[in-house]
Amino acid sequence: MFELGLRGRRALLNGGAHGLGLACARALAAEGARVAVFDADAEALRRVAAELGALALPGDPASREQIEGAVAAVEREWGGVDILVNAAPVEPAPAPLHEVEDAAWERVARDHLLAYLRFMRAVTPGMRERGHGRVVNLTGVAARNPDPRRLPASTAAIAVLNLTKATADEFAPHGVTINAVSPGTFREGAERRGGGEAEAASVAGVPAGRAGAPEELADLIVFLASDRAAYVTGASVTIDGGRTRGI
Amino acid sequence: MDLGIAGKVAIVSGGSRGIGYAAAEVLAEEGCHVAICALDPGRLAAPCDLRDQEALARRREPPRVERFGTVHILVNNGSPTDSPSMWGPVLAEVDDEEWLETWRAKFIGYVRFSRAVLPHMRGQRWGRIVHVSGMGGRGPNPRYLAGGPVHTALLTLAKGMADEYGPDNVLVTALSPGPIETGHHPLILGVQAREAGISAEAARERFVAGVPLRRYGTPRETGEAIAYLCSERASFVTGVELLVDGGRSRSF
């Protein structure tokens, strides 16, 4: 039996009411972790809280106060955060660079990148003090495979990898690991990709011949959050059915 | 070697000193018409702050298009990394506003300049855009949490833009200068000296020992590499990063 050691661990998800983040929340709960979810969608959050017995933290990722307030609330409730999963990338509508307005670039910088940084900044002092912590930053496979029609998301994704590696160095001596996961084509994104022929085309380039299941991504994140992954830090793990062409 | 760019119109941002000035100088020597944009009004006829969003909105049309009719070459070389507080803060000390300003000034500033020149370059089916990035791009550093992600993002920006605009013969590359003798390197050395409890001179020696060429680079040799990427001699080079770092980077 592969014991992950997650029973009773306190996990906080930035973005866990939908899609890949939700799959992750479910997987952590299934391993016996206590789960708190921060999300802007209060309605979906109520459903998740009911399903998983999760602590619901409705909030705006653009707000420093609300992010820090959410972390403080978990610390009040449970005494600390052992696991942070940042799972809230921002995806502006696809367009070539010359048609992307400033607002889209600004939103990605503040609501995605700075939000990840703020969550990390808020949870890491406690993790360092206790000598244990896990941070997993969810980003996109476009980090290393830039999509010319999704440059705000692609450039943010690689920026997350940089932040992950840089902060991992600082916390590695204190038992706190910080990793990134870059998912490729997942069933969860089919609707966004337009479905039908567009979906068939996006899956055609995947050696595995199919889109990934959200649960497969969640399994990877749960492993990185576990005691079994104590020597994995500063890594960015691609999960894409073999699609990435670079080595 | 004739770079084949005499008569081309070039814009160099951050062009009043350091690497930007050197690039502007080399391009001018090669016969380009060069417009430079920079912060310091004392060094320039048309000062421009990449952080000033209103001013940039007014400049969506590049400043010298009226005079020269078009733009062929854009060297994006903003460098908010000059700020003394850029080097040093670890995660707990990051100032949110400064972090966002860095992202806006360098990354979004490059995006805006690119957006402004692309119609000209695509229309004439000839363009070169060089995003000057930096060491933090491939060498993440816990004390460079504002600059590093920007540098990395610029590499992905160059690759993605190269894909999108390659069919229009607009070539987009990134150039990452390593340890170059410019205004901001002493700031980095200062932090390292304080950390290690050694003198700035000792920090400098230690730093240089990690550079295979055992010396700092000059702005001039960086400007020459930029000019090559902008030239007709680099007509099949796009979507790549050129490191000008004396061999220091561990990335290959």
Protein model, in words:
By secondary structure, chain A is of the alpha/beta class. Chain A is 44% helix and 15% strand. Chain A contains seven helices and seven strands; from the N terminus they run βαβαβαβαβαβααβ. Chain A has a seven-stranded parallel sheet, with helices on both faces. In chain A, helix 1 links the parallel strand 1 and strand 2. In chain A, helix 1 (19-30) crosses helix 7, helix 3 (64-78) runs parallel beside helix 4 and helix 4 runs parallel beside helix 5 (151-171). Chain A is globular, with a radius of gyration of 17 Å. The relative contact order of chain A is 0.15. The model of chain A has no long low-confidence stretch (mean pLDDT 94). Chain B has helices at residues 18-29, 53-58, 65-68, 96-124, 147-165, 185-196, 200-209, 219-229; strands at residues 9-13, 33-37, 73-76, 127-132, 170-177, 241-244. Chain B has 252 residues and is α/β, with parallel strands linked by helices. Chain B starts with 8 loop residues before the first strand and ends in an 8-residue tail after the last strand. The A-B interface holds A 64, 96-98, 100, 102, 105-106, 109-110, 113-114, 117-118, 120-121, 124-125, 142-144, 146-149, 151, 154-167, 169-170 and B 53, 90-92, 94, 96, 99-100, 103-104, 107-108, 111-112, 114-115, 118-119, 136-137, 140-142, 144-145, 148-157, 159-161, 163-164.
